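Q: For a teaching session next week I want to show students how multiple molecules come together into a single three-dimensional assembly. I've collected the sequence lines for a complex. Could you give me the predicted C-alpha coordinates for the whole thing so I can convert them for display?
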Amino acid sequence: MADDELYALHQQELRRGTAVLACLLILQRPNYGYALLDQLGRSGFDIDANTLYPLLRRLEKQGLLTSDWNTEESRPRKFYRTSDQGVALADALSHDWDDLDSAIRALREES
Amino acid sequence: MTATPTANVTLTDRYVNSTLRSLPAHQRADIERELRASIADAVDGRVEAGGDPAEAERAVLVELGDPARLAARYADRPLHLIGPTLYLDYIRLVTALLVTVVPAVAGAVGFARILQDQTVGQVITGAMGTAATTGIHIVFWTTLLFAVIERTPSLRTGPARQWTPDSLPQPPTRKARRGTIIGATVALVLVTAFVLFSPVVSTETDADGDPIAILSPWLWDSGMVYVVLGLVAGGFGITVAKQYVRWSPSLALVGAAFGIGSATLLIWLAADDKLINPAFAAAAGWPAEVTEWIGIGLIVVAVLTVVQTVVETVAGFVARSWVTPDWHNMIHTIVDGVARR
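A: Of course. Below is the structure for the complete assembly, covering every listed component.
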Protein backbone atom coordinates (compact mmCIF):
# COMPACT_ATOMS: atom_id res chain seq x y z
CA MET A 1 0.00 0.00 0.00
CA ALA A 2 1.32 3.42 -0.94
CA ASP A 3 2.07 5.84 1.88
CA ASP A 4 -0.64 8.34 0.96
CA GLU A 5 -3.15 5.50 0.70
CA LEU A 6 -2.20 4.42 4.20
CA TYR A 7 -2.53 8.00 5.37
CA ALA A 8 -5.96 8.38 3.77
CA LEU A 9 -7.10 5.16 5.44
CA HIS A 10 -6.07 6.23 8.93
CA GLN A 11 -7.23 9.78 8.42
CA GLN A 12 -10.67 8.45 7.55
CA GLU A 13 -10.65 6.28 10.69
CA LEU A 14 -9.64 9.28 12.80
CA ARG A 15 -12.33 11.53 11.34
CA ARG A 16 -15.14 9.00 11.53
CA GLY A 17 -17.71 10.37 13.93
CA THR A 18 -16.47 13.96 13.86
CA ALA A 19 -19.10 14.70 11.19
CA VAL A 20 -21.85 14.17 13.79
CA LEU A 21 -20.27 16.68 16.16
CA ALA A 22 -19.74 19.13 13.29
CA CYS A 23 -23.42 18.83 12.28
CA LEU A 24 -24.62 19.38 15.85
CA LEU A 25 -22.41 22.47 16.14
CA ILE A 26 -23.29 23.98 12.73
CA LEU A 27 -27.01 23.31 13.10
CA GLN A 28 -27.32 25.37 16.28
CA ARG A 29 -28.29 27.85 13.55
CA PRO A 30 -30.99 26.17 11.40
CA ASN A 31 -29.89 25.06 7.97
CA TYR A 32 -30.93 22.70 5.16
CA GLY A 33 -29.25 19.65 3.67
CA TYR A 34 -27.36 20.99 0.67
CA ALA A 35 -26.15 24.17 2.42
CA LEU A 36 -24.94 22.07 5.35
CA LEU A 37 -23.11 19.73 2.95
CA ASP A 38 -21.47 22.74 1.38
CA GLN A 39 -20.45 24.22 4.72
CA LEU A 40 -19.09 20.91 6.00
CA GLY A 41 -17.04 20.60 2.82
CA ARG A 42 -15.63 24.11 3.25
CA SER A 43 -14.76 23.34 6.90
CA GLY A 44 -12.79 20.32 5.76
CA PHE A 45 -15.30 17.59 6.68
CA ASP A 46 -15.37 15.38 3.63
CA ILE A 47 -18.79 13.74 3.92
CA ASP A 48 -20.78 12.39 0.98
CA ALA A 49 -24.30 13.59 0.26
CA ASN A 50 -25.58 10.02 0.38
CA THR A 51 -24.18 9.69 3.92
CA LEU A 52 -25.19 13.11 5.21
CA TYR A 53 -28.89 13.12 4.24
CA PRO A 54 -29.71 9.78 5.89
CA LEU A 55 -27.52 10.83 8.87
CA LEU A 56 -29.62 13.97 9.43
CA ARG A 57 -32.77 11.84 9.60
CA ARG A 58 -31.14 9.42 12.00
CA LEU A 59 -30.08 12.28 14.29
CA GLU A 60 -33.59 13.67 14.11
CA LYS A 61 -35.02 10.27 15.03
CA GLN A 62 -32.64 10.19 18.02
CA GLY A 63 -34.03 13.54 19.16
CA LEU A 64 -30.74 15.40 18.60
CA LEU A 65 -32.15 17.49 15.74
CA THR A 66 -35.55 19.00 15.08
CA SER A 67 -36.81 19.91 11.63
CA ASP A 68 -39.19 22.35 9.99
CA TRP A 69 -40.30 22.75 6.40
CA ASN A 70 -39.65 26.25 5.10
CA THR A 71 -42.13 26.88 2.31
CA GLU A 72 -41.67 30.63 2.05
CA GLU A 73 -39.21 30.41 -0.81
CA SER A 74 -39.97 28.97 -4.25
CA ARG A 75 -38.19 25.74 -3.35
CA PRO A 76 -39.47 24.20 -0.10
CA ARG A 77 -36.56 23.08 2.07
CA LYS A 78 -36.32 21.04 5.22
CA PHE A 79 -34.43 23.03 7.85
CA TYR A 80 -32.74 21.15 10.67
CA ARG A 81 -31.87 22.63 14.04
CA THR A 82 -29.97 21.12 16.94
CA SER A 83 -32.37 20.31 19.81
CA ASP A 84 -31.64 21.03 23.47
CA GLN A 85 -30.62 17.42 23.84
CA GLY A 86 -28.41 17.81 20.76
CA VAL A 87 -26.76 20.92 22.24
CA ALA A 88 -26.05 19.03 25.46
CA LEU A 89 -24.55 16.13 23.50
CA ALA A 90 -22.46 18.52 21.40
CA ASP A 91 -21.12 20.08 24.62
CA ALA A 92 -20.20 16.68 26.03
CA LEU A 93 -18.58 15.58 22.77
CA SER A 94 -16.68 18.87 22.49
CA HIS A 95 -15.32 18.21 25.97
CA ASP A 96 -14.19 14.78 24.87
CA TRP A 97 -12.57 16.39 21.87
CA ASP A 98 -10.64 18.78 24.12
CA ASP A 99 -9.60 15.92 26.40
CA LEU A 100 -8.35 13.98 23.40
CA ASP A 101 -6.53 17.03 22.16
CA SER A 102 -4.71 17.59 25.45
CA ALA A 103 -3.98 13.87 25.78
CA ILE A 104 -2.41 13.81 22.30
CA ARG A 105 -0.49 17.00 23.07
CA ALA A 106 0.87 15.45 26.27
CA LEU A 107 1.92 12.34 24.34
CA ARG A 108 3.67 14.45 21.73
CA GLU A 109 5.56 16.41 24.35
CA GLU A 110 6.67 13.22 26.08
CA SER A 111 8.05 11.72 22.93
CA MET B 1 -46.44 12.65 -6.31
CA THR B 2 -45.22 9.70 -8.34
CA ALA B 3 -44.25 10.63 -11.85
CA THR B 4 -46.37 9.31 -14.68
CA PRO B 5 -44.50 7.50 -17.45
CA THR B 6 -44.41 10.26 -20.03
CA ALA B 7 -41.60 11.67 -22.13
CA ASN B 8 -41.14 14.36 -19.46
CA VAL B 9 -39.79 11.94 -16.87
CA THR B 10 -36.39 13.29 -15.90
CA LEU B 11 -33.36 11.40 -14.67
CA THR B 12 -34.08 12.88 -11.24
CA ASP B 13 -37.64 11.50 -11.30
CA ARG B 14 -36.33 8.05 -12.13
CA TYR B 15 -33.66 8.31 -9.45
CA VAL B 16 -36.07 9.49 -6.76
CA ASN B 17 -38.64 6.83 -7.62
CA SER B 18 -35.99 4.15 -7.56
CA THR B 19 -34.84 5.30 -4.12
CA LEU B 20 -38.34 5.52 -2.66
CA ARG B 21 -39.48 2.12 -3.88
CA SER B 22 -37.82 0.18 -1.08
CA LEU B 23 -38.62 2.66 1.69
CA PRO B 24 -41.52 2.33 4.17
CA ALA B 25 -44.61 4.10 2.82
CA HIS B 26 -44.89 6.54 5.75
CA GLN B 27 -41.40 7.96 5.09
CA ARG B 28 -41.71 8.32 1.33
CA ALA B 29 -43.43 11.69 0.94
CA ASP B 30 -41.08 13.54 3.28
CA ILE B 31 -37.90 11.93 1.93
CA GLU B 32 -39.02 12.57 -1.66
CA ARG B 33 -39.59 16.26 -1.00
CA GLU B 34 -36.25 16.69 0.74
CA LEU B 35 -34.31 14.57 -1.74
CA ARG B 36 -35.74 16.51 -4.71
CA ALA B 37 -34.84 19.82 -3.08
CA SER B 38 -31.32 18.60 -2.29
CA ILE B 39 -30.78 17.36 -5.86
CA ALA B 40 -32.14 20.62 -7.30
CA ASP B 41 -29.88 22.66 -4.97
CA ALA B 42 -26.85 20.64 -5.99
CA VAL B 43 -27.69 20.96 -9.70
CA ASP B 44 -28.14 24.72 -9.28
CA GLY B 45 -24.81 24.89 -7.52
CA ARG B 46 -23.09 23.20 -10.45
CA VAL B 47 -24.91 25.29 -13.06
CA GLU B 48 -23.99 28.50 -11.24
CA ALA B 49 -20.38 27.36 -11.35
CA GLY B 50 -20.76 27.26 -15.13
CA GLY B 51 -21.92 23.72 -15.91
CA ASP B 52 -24.35 22.42 -18.48
CA PRO B 53 -27.72 21.67 -16.77
CA ALA B 54 -28.09 18.14 -18.18
CA GLU B 55 -24.53 17.22 -17.33
CA ALA B 56 -24.91 18.80 -13.89
CA GLU B 57 -27.97 16.64 -13.14
CA ARG B 58 -26.10 13.54 -14.24
CA ALA B 59 -23.07 14.39 -12.13
CA VAL B 60 -25.17 15.06 -9.03
CA LEU B 61 -26.93 11.70 -9.37
CA VAL B 62 -23.62 9.91 -9.92
CA GLU B 63 -22.36 11.51 -6.72
CA LEU B 64 -25.44 10.33 -4.80
CA GLY B 65 -24.71 6.83 -6.06
CA ASP B 66 -26.74 3.64 -6.29
CA PRO B 67 -30.32 4.44 -5.16
CA ALA B 68 -30.57 1.05 -3.46
CA ARG B 69 -27.60 2.00 -1.27
CA LEU B 70 -29.10 5.39 -0.48
CA ALA B 71 -32.45 3.79 0.39
CA ALA B 72 -30.71 1.28 2.66
CA ARG B 73 -29.06 4.18 4.52
CA TYR B 74 -32.38 5.99 4.90
CA ALA B 75 -34.04 2.82 6.17
CA ASP B 76 -31.02 1.83 8.31
CA ARG B 77 -30.91 -1.54 6.61
CA PRO B 78 -27.69 -3.57 6.63
CA LEU B 79 -25.85 -3.82 3.31
CA HIS B 80 -24.35 -7.16 4.24
CA LEU B 81 -25.90 -10.60 4.56
CA ILE B 82 -24.41 -11.39 7.97
CA GLY B 83 -22.59 -8.76 10.00
CA PRO B 84 -19.59 -8.98 12.33
CA THR B 85 -21.75 -9.51 15.43
CA LEU B 86 -23.24 -12.73 14.09
CA TYR B 87 -20.47 -13.86 11.74
CA LEU B 88 -18.48 -16.04 14.18
CA ASP B 89 -21.61 -17.77 15.51
CA TYR B 90 -22.77 -18.29 11.93
CA ILE B 91 -19.53 -19.77 10.66
CA ARG B 92 -19.19 -21.98 13.75
CA LEU B 93 -22.71 -23.32 13.42
CA VAL B 94 -22.35 -24.02 9.68
CA THR B 95 -19.05 -25.81 10.23
CA ALA B 96 -20.33 -27.78 13.20
CA LEU B 97 -23.34 -28.94 11.19
CA LEU B 98 -21.21 -29.75 8.14
CA VAL B 99 -18.66 -31.85 10.00
CA THR B 100 -21.26 -33.78 11.98
CA VAL B 101 -24.30 -34.16 9.76
CA VAL B 102 -22.61 -34.59 6.36
CA PRO B 103 -20.31 -37.49 7.35
CA ALA B 104 -23.11 -39.14 9.35
CA VAL B 105 -25.58 -38.98 6.45
CA ALA B 106 -22.96 -40.01 3.89
CA GLY B 107 -21.89 -42.91 6.10
CA ALA B 108 -25.49 -44.04 6.57
CA VAL B 109 -26.18 -43.95 2.82
CA GLY B 110 -22.91 -45.76 2.07
CA PHE B 111 -23.76 -48.40 4.67
CA ALA B 112 -27.28 -48.88 3.27
CA ARG B 113 -25.89 -49.31 -0.24
CA ILE B 114 -23.30 -51.83 0.93
CA LEU B 115 -26.10 -53.87 2.51
CA GLN B 116 -28.00 -53.73 -0.80
CA ASP B 117 -24.94 -55.36 -2.40
CA GLN B 118 -24.30 -52.41 -4.69
CA THR B 119 -20.98 -51.99 -6.45
CA VAL B 120 -18.14 -49.95 -4.96
CA GLY B 121 -18.82 -47.20 -7.53
CA GLN B 122 -22.50 -47.02 -6.58
CA VAL B 123 -21.64 -46.92 -2.89
CA ILE B 124 -19.15 -44.08 -3.39
CA THR B 125 -21.34 -42.00 -5.75
CA GLY B 126 -24.33 -42.51 -3.45
CA ALA B 127 -22.41 -41.38 -0.38
CA MET B 128 -20.75 -38.46 -2.21
CA GLY B 129 -24.00 -37.30 -3.82
CA THR B 130 -25.83 -37.36 -0.52
CA ALA B 131 -22.92 -35.54 1.15
CA ALA B 132 -23.03 -32.77 -1.47
CA THR B 133 -26.82 -32.34 -1.29
CA THR B 134 -26.80 -32.35 2.52
CA GLY B 135 -23.94 -29.84 2.60
CA ILE B 136 -25.72 -27.44 0.23
CA HIS B 137 -28.92 -27.65 2.29
CA ILE B 138 -27.09 -27.02 5.55
CA VAL B 139 -25.23 -23.99 4.19
CA PHE B 140 -28.33 -22.55 2.50
CA TRP B 141 -30.74 -22.86 5.41
CA THR B 142 -28.27 -21.72 8.05
CA THR B 143 -27.33 -18.69 5.94
CA LEU B 144 -30.99 -17.86 5.43
CA LEU B 145 -31.65 -18.16 9.16
CA PHE B 146 -28.78 -15.81 10.06
CA ALA B 147 -29.67 -13.32 7.30
CA VAL B 148 -33.19 -13.15 8.79
CA ILE B 149 -31.81 -12.69 12.32
CA GLU B 150 -29.50 -9.94 11.00
CA ARG B 151 -32.54 -8.13 9.57
CA THR B 152 -34.84 -8.64 12.57
CA PRO B 153 -33.65 -6.41 15.43
CA SER B 154 -36.03 -8.07 17.92
CA LEU B 155 -34.25 -11.40 17.36
CA ARG B 156 -30.88 -9.89 18.23
CA THR B 157 -31.71 -8.47 21.66
CA GLY B 158 -30.24 -11.40 23.59
CA PRO B 159 -26.76 -10.72 24.97
CA ALA B 160 -23.93 -12.22 22.95
CA ARG B 161 -22.47 -15.35 24.48
CA GLN B 162 -19.56 -14.33 26.65
CA TRP B 163 -16.25 -15.88 25.71
CA THR B 164 -14.30 -17.39 28.62
CA PRO B 165 -10.72 -18.68 28.73
CA ASP B 166 -12.11 -22.12 29.61
CA SER B 167 -12.77 -22.73 25.93
CA LEU B 168 -9.07 -22.46 25.05
CA PRO B 169 -7.71 -25.71 23.61
CA GLN B 170 -5.58 -27.87 25.87
CA PRO B 171 -2.30 -29.43 24.66
CA PRO B 172 -2.24 -33.23 24.88
CA THR B 173 -0.68 -34.49 28.13
CA ARG B 174 2.17 -36.96 28.33
CA LYS B 175 -0.16 -39.32 30.17
CA ALA B 176 -2.68 -39.25 27.33
CA ARG B 177 0.11 -39.90 24.84
CA ARG B 178 1.31 -42.93 26.80
CA GLY B 179 -2.27 -44.18 27.08
CA THR B 180 -2.68 -44.00 23.31
CA ILE B 181 0.51 -45.96 22.70
CA ILE B 182 -0.36 -48.64 25.28
CA GLY B 183 -3.85 -48.99 23.80
CA ALA B 184 -2.46 -49.30 20.27
CA THR B 185 0.11 -51.90 21.38
CA VAL B 186 -2.49 -54.01 23.17
CA ALA B 187 -4.76 -53.86 20.10
CA LEU B 188 -1.86 -54.82 17.81
CA VAL B 189 -0.90 -57.82 19.94
CA LEU B 190 -4.48 -59.03 20.36
CA VAL B 191 -5.43 -58.76 16.68
CA THR B 192 -2.17 -60.29 15.43
CA ALA B 193 -2.39 -63.14 17.94
CA PHE B 194 -6.03 -63.77 17.06
CA VAL B 195 -5.25 -63.95 13.34
CA LEU B 196 -2.05 -65.98 13.66
CA PHE B 197 -3.40 -68.49 16.18
CA SER B 198 -6.78 -68.90 14.49
CA PRO B 199 -5.73 -71.90 12.34
CA VAL B 200 -4.30 -73.85 15.31
CA VAL B 201 -6.46 -72.78 18.27
CA SER B 202 -10.22 -73.17 18.04
CA THR B 203 -13.22 -74.14 20.11
CA GLU B 204 -14.38 -76.53 17.39
CA THR B 205 -12.63 -79.62 16.07
CA ASP B 206 -13.31 -81.82 13.06
CA ALA B 207 -13.74 -85.62 12.97
CA ASP B 208 -9.95 -86.13 13.20
CA GLY B 209 -9.74 -83.87 16.26
CA ASP B 210 -7.99 -81.10 14.30
CA PRO B 211 -9.10 -77.53 15.10
CA ILE B 212 -11.49 -75.78 12.67
CA ALA B 213 -10.24 -72.22 12.17
CA ILE B 214 -12.76 -69.42 12.85
CA LEU B 215 -11.25 -67.33 10.03
CA SER B 216 -11.74 -68.44 6.47
CA PRO B 217 -8.86 -70.57 5.06
CA TRP B 218 -9.21 -68.47 1.89
CA LEU B 219 -7.31 -65.71 3.69
CA TRP B 220 -4.24 -67.96 3.90
CA ASP B 221 -4.70 -69.54 0.47
CA SER B 222 -4.84 -66.13 -1.22
CA GLY B 223 -2.16 -64.54 0.96
CA MET B 224 -4.71 -61.90 2.03
CA VAL B 225 -3.86 -62.56 5.66
CA TYR B 226 -0.44 -60.96 5.17
CA VAL B 227 -2.04 -57.87 3.66
CA VAL B 228 -4.34 -57.65 6.69
CA LEU B 229 -1.47 -58.10 9.14
CA GLY B 230 0.57 -55.55 7.19
CA LEU B 231 -2.24 -53.01 7.46
CA VAL B 232 -2.65 -53.70 11.19
CA ALA B 233 1.08 -53.19 11.76
CA GLY B 234 1.08 -50.09 9.54
CA GLY B 235 -1.86 -48.63 11.43
CA PHE B 236 -0.01 -49.20 14.69
CA GLY B 237 3.08 -47.50 13.25
CA ILE B 238 1.06 -44.46 12.18
CA THR B 239 -0.65 -44.15 15.58
CA VAL B 240 2.74 -44.19 17.31
CA ALA B 241 4.30 -41.85 14.73
CA LYS B 242 1.53 -39.29 15.36
CA GLN B 243 2.70 -39.05 18.98
CA TYR B 244 6.27 -38.17 18.09
CA VAL B 245 6.47 -36.83 14.54
CA ARG B 246 5.29 -33.31 13.73
CA TRP B 247 2.20 -33.00 11.57
CA SER B 248 2.85 -32.57 7.86
CA PRO B 249 0.39 -32.63 4.94
CA SER B 250 2.03 -35.66 3.31
CA LEU B 251 2.11 -37.68 6.52
CA ALA B 252 -1.50 -36.73 7.24
CA LEU B 253 -2.57 -37.88 3.77
CA VAL B 254 -0.65 -41.15 4.11
CA GLY B 255 -2.39 -41.73 7.44
CA ALA B 256 -5.78 -40.95 5.94
CA ALA B 257 -5.19 -43.19 2.89
CA PHE B 258 -4.10 -45.96 5.24
CA GLY B 259 -7.20 -45.67 7.41
CA ILE B 260 -9.59 -45.50 4.46
CA GLY B 261 -7.76 -48.31 2.62
CA SER B 262 -7.93 -50.61 5.65
CA ALA B 263 -11.62 -49.86 6.18
CA THR B 264 -12.39 -50.46 2.50
CA LEU B 265 -10.61 -53.81 2.60
CA LEU B 266 -12.55 -54.77 5.72
CA ILE B 267 -15.84 -53.81 4.01
CA TRP B 268 -14.96 -55.89 0.96
CA LEU B 269 -13.96 -58.93 3.04
CA ALA B 270 -17.08 -58.70 5.22
CA ALA B 271 -19.50 -58.01 2.37
CA ASP B 272 -18.13 -60.92 0.33
CA ASP B 273 -18.27 -63.33 3.32
CA LYS B 274 -14.53 -63.94 3.07
CA LEU B 275 -13.79 -63.59 6.79
CA ILE B 276 -15.64 -66.32 8.68
CA ASN B 277 -14.92 -69.95 7.90
CA PRO B 278 -18.28 -71.51 6.87
CA ALA B 279 -17.09 -74.86 8.27
CA PHE B 280 -16.58 -73.24 11.66
CA ALA B 281 -20.06 -71.68 11.64
CA ALA B 282 -21.54 -75.05 10.73
CA ALA B 283 -19.56 -76.91 13.40
CA ALA B 284 -20.51 -74.36 16.06
CA GLY B 285 -24.14 -74.72 15.00
CA TRP B 286 -24.54 -70.99 14.27
CA PRO B 287 -27.74 -70.03 12.50
CA ALA B 288 -27.11 -68.32 9.13
CA GLU B 289 -27.97 -64.89 10.59
CA VAL B 290 -25.02 -64.91 12.99
CA THR B 291 -22.42 -64.85 10.20
CA GLU B 292 -24.49 -62.20 8.47
CA TRP B 293 -24.69 -60.01 11.58
CA ILE B 294 -20.96 -60.33 12.22
CA GLY B 295 -20.44 -59.09 8.64
CA ILE B 296 -22.83 -56.15 9.16
CA GLY B 297 -21.18 -55.29 12.45
CA LEU B 298 -17.76 -55.21 10.80
CA ILE B 299 -19.11 -53.03 7.94
CA VAL B 300 -20.57 -50.58 10.49
CA VAL B 301 -17.19 -50.40 12.23
CA ALA B 302 -15.44 -49.88 8.87
CA VAL B 303 -17.86 -47.14 7.74
CA LEU B 304 -17.45 -45.34 11.07
CA THR B 305 -13.68 -45.63 10.64
CA VAL B 306 -13.90 -43.98 7.21
CA VAL B 307 -16.07 -41.15 8.58
CA GLN B 308 -13.77 -40.66 11.57
CA THR B 309 -10.64 -40.73 9.37
CA VAL B 310 -12.07 -38.10 7.01
CA VAL B 311 -13.10 -35.79 9.87
CA GLU B 312 -9.80 -36.32 11.68
CA THR B 313 -7.87 -35.48 8.50
CA VAL B 314 -9.93 -32.35 7.90
CA ALA B 315 -9.42 -31.29 11.53
CA GLY B 316 -5.69 -31.97 11.15
CA PHE B 317 -5.47 -29.79 8.05
CA VAL B 318 -7.45 -27.03 9.74
CA ALA B 319 -5.33 -27.08 12.89
CA ARG B 320 -2.08 -27.93 11.02
CA SER B 321 -1.34 -30.47 13.73
CA TRP B 322 -2.43 -33.92 14.84
CA VAL B 323 -5.75 -33.91 16.65
CA THR B 324 -6.88 -36.29 19.35
CA PRO B 325 -9.40 -38.49 17.58
CA ASP B 326 -12.30 -37.82 19.91
CA TRP B 327 -15.37 -36.35 18.29
CA HIS B 328 -15.86 -33.41 20.60
CA ASN B 329 -12.26 -32.32 20.13
CA MET B 330 -12.19 -32.87 16.35
CA ILE B 331 -15.39 -30.91 15.77
CA HIS B 332 -14.22 -28.14 18.07
CA THR B 333 -10.91 -27.94 16.20
CA ILE B 334 -12.56 -27.69 12.80
CA VAL B 335 -15.27 -25.25 13.89
CA ASP B 336 -12.79 -22.97 15.60
CA GLY B 337 -10.24 -23.22 12.79
CA VAL B 338 -12.71 -22.44 10.01
CA ALA B 339 -14.10 -19.44 11.94
CA ARG B 340 -10.63 -17.91 11.79
CA ARG B 341 -10.26 -17.97 8.02
